[in-house]
Amino acid sequence: MKHFLLLICTFFLGLNIVFAQYSLPQLVHTDNAQKMEALEAPNKFQNNIIKQVKKSAPNTIWSEDFSNGIPSTWSYGGYFTTSTGIQTQFPDLTQNPAIYGWEYRGPNTNPNITTGTRGAYGGNALIVSPSINNGFIIFDSDYLDNAGTQGAFGIGPAPTPHVGGLMTDIIDCSNYPSLQLQLNSYQRSFFGQAFVAFSKDGGMTWPDSVELHMLDVNQATAEDNVEKILVSDFIGGEANAMIQFIFEGATEGNTNGTGYYFWQIDDIVLSEIPPYDLILYDNDFRYDNNDNINSFYGIELRDYVGHMPLNQIDSISFGFFAMNWGAMDQNMSTGISIVEASNPNNTVYSNVEYIDLVSAGDSTGWINDQKWLPSSTGEYIAEYLIIGDSADATDYDNSLLKGFIVTDTVYNPFLDFGNTDATGTGFFTGGDDGFKMANLISLINTDELTSVRIGLNRSTTAQYNTVPGGMIQITVFDTTGFYSASIENPILYSDFYFITADDTANREAIIPIPSQYLGVPQDRNLSPGSYYVAAELYSSANATPIVIRDDISTLRYPWESLIYIPGEQWYTNGNAFNISANFGTWSTTNIEEENYSSNLMVFPNPTSGKVNLKFSINKEANTSIIIKDLSGKIITNIEKGNLLPGSYSEEINLSNIAKGIYFYELKTNEFSKNGKIVLTK
C-alpha cells in the first residue's frame, strides 16, 4: 500500500489569514452562472444510490440556526471600496437602509428564504440545510458590487474589493478542551474566499483561521455542503472564545476587484469531539498508465473520467483521503467495492486493506495496492469505505460513492452523477460567437475518432435553453506546444453543423468527423497521447443559444478542461463538459450528400477581401452560394441555377464589408454544406 502525506484539507487546516494569489489565466466574468431547471434525462444512477442520513453531533455546547435572524449581540467588520477608491468600514450607517455586508434571509424578510444572491451573475441557488425554513445568512458579494445589473461593476451599495466579517458574541468554552465546529456552508467563488477565524481574548486578536472550500474560479460547493473544523487548538478550554466568518474579496487576481458571488451559512454547531470519529473526505480514481501526462503541471496520472473505452484502460487504482477526527487513536482499514449500477447486489470487484495506527487529529492519504482491470463494458458504482476499531460517532462520512461507465467507443469526462451545471454561449462577456469549450482526452492505444457528441441542455430558463439554429464546429488539436505558449495545433475538423429541432428534442447533437475537410484528406486515427476535443459555438449573437451540460462533481486538474473567449485567450476551467469523443465505425457523411458534392475548397481563408470556392457535384442540381454574417443576415446570395455534374469555381469579393467572421453555405435542393470565412481586411 502506498502512503502519502496529506498537505491540504479544507475541513481542518489551521493557519493565519493569508490571501492566496492565482497565477493561472482565469475567466474574466460569468454572465449567467445560476443553476438551471434542467430537462435532461434523469440520472440513471440516482435510483441505485442509498441516501445516508446524517447524525447529530454529540454534546452540543453552542449553536445558531438563525431562527431569530442574526443575533443582536453579534458584530460586523470589514470594509468596501467606493467608486472614488475610498475604503469605508462595515457597517455603513450613512445609507438607508444601512449596509452591514452580511444579511439575514428569513421566512418574513424581503428578500426571503427563496432568494439567494440578488446579484447579476451569481444565480439564485440556495443553501440546503436542516433549518432552511427558519432562515440563513449570506454575504452577497455579487449584489453588493453591481446591485443586480449586468456590466455595472462597482455601482452597488458596497463595491468590491471588499471584505466582510461577522463576529459572534463571547462563547464560554472553559470546560471543553476538545472542540469541533460544524456548519452548513454553500459558496460560489470568483476569487472570493471564505474564512472562519478564532479569538481567545474576546475579539482583541484573531491569531487562527481556517480557509473553507478553496474553490477555483467559477466553482461552487454543493448546496448541502457541511464543513467540520477541529478547533481545540484555537479555542478549546477558553472562557472568552469568539468566532468570526470572513468573506475575503480583496485578494489579487482580476480587474473586477476579485470578490464575487456569495457565501451562505446556516446551522452552526460547536460541540465536543467524540472519542471515535473517522472521516473519508475525498477519494482518488486513476486510469493507470502514466505515459500520457500533463507535463506542464506534472500530473503523472490519467484521472477520473465518466466514460472510458475498454481498450483505453490499463487498470484502475483507488485512493483514499481520510482523517481520524476523534479524540482517540485508531487503526483504520479501507474497503473498495464495485457493483453494477443496474444491479447493486452484483459485486464485480472488492478489496479490503489494513492501515497503520492513525493518531487523533491526524490525516493521511494512500493508494490501495490492489488494482482492478475491467473485463467488459458496463455501468458501475464504486463505493469507498473506511473502518475503525470502534463504533463511529458519525458514520455517514465514512463512505463515498463514484459512478463511472466502461464503454465500447465513447470517451467523455462528463458523468451525470448528481451534481451538474451548464455552460455555453452568452455565459461570459464576449462569449457569444466563436466561444470554445474543450475536454482533454488521453489515449494509450491508437483508435479512430469518427464523431463527437455534444450534450445539449434544455431548460425553462431562457439562457439555459438550447434552441435550434445555432452552429457548431468541432476541432481536435494536439497538446504539443499548448501548455507553454497556448498554441493550437488542430489535426482534425468537422464541417459546420447546424443544431436542429430533433437535436434539441433529443438533448444531443452528433457531429461526424469527415475523412476529408475542405477537400483535404484527414487521418482520424489518433496515436497514443493527449488531445483536446473542442466545440466552437456560434449563436448569432446569442439569438440561438447553445448550452452544454457540465459535470461539477469531480475535480478537474488545471488545463484538463478549457474555455476560449474570442479576442482573449484560453482559460482553464474546473468542470468536465458533456463533449464525447466517439471512436470506431461511424457514417461520416450523408450518402445523398456524397452523390451531390465533394472536394469543396475555400481559399484563401482567412482572406483580406476575395475568396474562392471550388466544388464539384456528382448529380445535376439547382445550386446557390450564400454568405451570411454572425447574426444570420444574408450578405450575398449567388444563384448558380441548374448545374450539371462537374467541377466549378466561384470568386466572391468581400472587400466592401467589415472585417469579421462570416459563413458560407453551398446549397442545393437536396443538401447544404457550411463553413466559416475569416475576413481580416
Describe the main β-sheet briefly: 7 strands, antiparallel
pLDDT below 50 for ≥5 consecutive residues: which ranges? 1-57, 291-300, 586-597
CATH architecture grouping of the largest domain: Sandwich
Overall pLDDT level: 82
- Here the CATH topology of the largest domain equals Jelly Rolls
- The CATH superfamily of the largest domain is known as Galactose-binding domain-like
Which secondary-structure class do the elements indicate?
mainly beta
Cα gyration radius (Å): 28 Å
Count of DSSP H/I helices:
5
Distance between the termini: 63 Å
Beta strand count: 46
User: Beta-strand level of the residues, as a percent range?
Assistant: 35-45%
CATH class of the largest domain: Mainly Beta
Question: What coarse outline follows from CA principal-axis ratios?
Answer: globular
Report helical residue fraction.
Answer: under 10%
Q: How many separate domains make up the residues?
A: 4
Attribute tags:
681 residues; mainly beta; Jelly Rolls; Immunoglobulin-like; six-stranded antiparallel β-sheet; 5 helices
Structure description:
The protein starts with a strand and ends with a strand. Mean pLDDT is 82; it is low at 1-57, 291-300 and 586-597. The chain is mainly β. 4% of the residues lie in helices and 43% in strands. It has five helices and 46 strands. It has four domains: 61-272, Jelly Rolls (Sandwich), CATH 2.60.120.260; 278-408, Immunoglobulins (Immunoglobulin-like); 420-583, Jelly Rolls, CATH 2.60.120; 591-679, Immunoglobulin-like (Sandwich). The protein is globular.
